[in-house]
Amino acid sequence: MLDIKDLTVRYNSMGRVTDAVNGISLSVEKGSFTGLVGESGSGKSTLMMALLGLLPPRTEVKGKILFNGTDILRMSDREIRDMRWKEIALVPQGAQNSFTPVMKIKSHISEVLCVHLKMPGDEAERETARLLSEVGLDPGIKERYPHELSGGQKQRASIALALACSPSLLLADEPTTALDVIVQAEILELLSNLRKTKGLSILLVTHDLPLAATVCDRLVVMKDGIIAETGTPSEIVRDPKHPHTKDLVREMFGQRDKK
Amino acid sequence: MMDRKVVETSKVTVSFRSKRGDIHKAVNDISLSLSRGETLAVVGGSGSGKTSLLRALIGLVRPNAGHVILYGKYLSQLGKDGLAEVRQRCGYVQQDPYGAIPPGLTALEAVCEPAVIAGVRTGREEIRERAVSLLAELGLKGERILGSRAAGLSGGQRQRVQIARALMLSPGILLCDEPTSMQDASTRGEVIEVLAKHVADGTAMIFVTHDLVLAGRAAERIMVMKEGFLCEEGPSDKILNAPDDPYTIKLINSVPSFGKITA
Fold this sequence. Notes:
The complex is a heterodimer of chains A (259) and B (263).
Chain A lengths: L1 E12 L2 E13 L4 E5 L6 H8 L8 E8 L2 E2 L5 H7 L4 E4 L13 H13 L3 H14 L16 H13 L5 E5 L7 H18 L2 E6 L2 H7 L2 E6 L2 E6 L1 H6 L4 H10 L7
Parallel strand pairs in A: 3-8, 3-9, 6-7, 7-8
Antiparallel strand pairs in A: 1-2, 1-4, 4-5, 9-10
Chain B lengths: L4 E13 L5 E13 L3 E5 L6 H8 L7 E6 L2 E2 L5 H8 L2 E4 L13 H12 L5 H14 L5 H4 L8 H13 L5 E5 L7 H16 L3 E6 L2 H7 L2 E6 L2 E7 H6 L4 H9 L9
Parallel strand pairs in B: 3-8, 3-9, 6-7, 7-8
Antiparallel strand pairs in B: 1-2, 1-4, 4-5, 9-10
Helix pairs in contact in B: 3-4, 3-6
C-alpha cells in the first residue's frame, strides 16, 4: 500500500544543509505492523513527516512516496488534506502533551469528525463515545479535560483521535515514551488488537529495538538517514548484518564490549 | 574506622494533601540503608512513590513519619545550613533534564557551577579540567557541545550534562531518577558504565527506574514499590530470576525483550 522510492530529504536552515533522509526505498504491505527503529537523528521522524506531507517549506525532497499508487510528494495541499486522517493518521510523539488543555476530550475528537467527515454534532458525540470504548476507555471520559487523565489514558485517547476517520495506515511516533512498562505493554497490546480487528497497517517509530521486535512483524533499522537493515524481528536479532544493528542487539543482550 | 554508611531511613512515610483536602500517602513505611560502594535500584510503575522517596532522602520533602539519617545526621534536626552542607555531599540527577540545567549557562559552566557554589578552593583551571574530563567520560566532547547552552542540547545530552554536574563534587551518594530515560541504546550502556565506575570508586548509588531489567544492570539490590508500599526487596539476581511478588512478576513480563519475539 505504501511504496517509498529513493527518498531524499534535505533541510536548509539558516545556511546549514542537513541530509536527514538519504535515498531510502521501503514498502509497507497492507495489514502489516512495521517497526521503524533508529536512534536520535537517524531520520525516522523526517520520514514520517514526509508521509504526511508535513515537511517544512523550502525542504528539498526527491524521490517518490506512492500511497495506493499516488505519489504523495506530487499531491496538491488539498489532496494531501483529504488524505491525512482519512487514509494516513498520526499518533504524535508526546501524545500526552498534544491535547489542548482547555478543551474537553470530546471536543478534540468531535472537531475532527465534524471537519473531516462533515458529521453533525450529536452524531459526532455518539461516535466519540464509541471511539473511546474502542481503545478501552470508559466513554464517560469524553467529559474530562486532558489534565484529568493519566498518561496511559491520554495515550489511549490520542489513539482514538487518530482512528476517528478510519484510516488505513496508522503512524505511531514513540507512542509509549513517558509511560511505565506495565502501561506500555497495555498500549502495545491495544495497537496489536486494533490492527487485527480493523485490518489497520501500523508503522511504529521507536528507538527501542526490543520493543519493536516483540510487537512488529517486520523491522526497518535506520541509521544516519539510510536504511541499515530490514527483516523479521527474529532474523534481525539472530543474525544482524549491519554493524549498527549488531551493536544494538549486543547492547540489548547486555554483552557490550567494554572497549 | 570511617563509617561507610551514607543514608539510612526507618519507616519513612510521605503524604501529600490535595487541593480538595484528601490525603495521599505517596510513600509508606519505607526503611533502607546504603553504604559507600553499594547500589540500590528502586523500581515501580508511575505513582509508586519512587521519586518522593528519593526527594525525602535529601530533605526536599519532609517525611510525615519516620526519619532519614544522612551522613550520620537526622535530617529533621538540621537547619538550613546543616541541610545545605549534607546535600552538597549528595549528587542528585533529577528526572526532568529540561528543568535541571540553568538555561543561561553553557554545558561546561553548568558542570563547573556546583564547585563554584560550594566555594571549592582549587584554581579555576582545575575545576574546568575536572568538568571537561567528567563530560568526556560521558561522551560529551568538543567546543561545540561544551559551549552550548541547554537549549542547544538534545534531551539525552542534557541528561549527561546533569550527571556530570552531580558527579562534580565527588559525592558520597548519587541519587539518580531515571538517569537514562532519554538515552539511545548505545549511550545508555555507556552511562551505566560511568555510574558503575564511580560506585567502584566508593560512591553509593540509588537508581530509580520503572524498568526492572535496567535496574538489574545498574544495581546489585532491587527494591520494588507499588503505590507507596514496599513489595519486595533483595539481590537483583533473585528479584529478576525468582521474584515472589505478583507485581514484580508483572513488571518483569512487561519489559520487551528479545526472548519474547514471535515474528
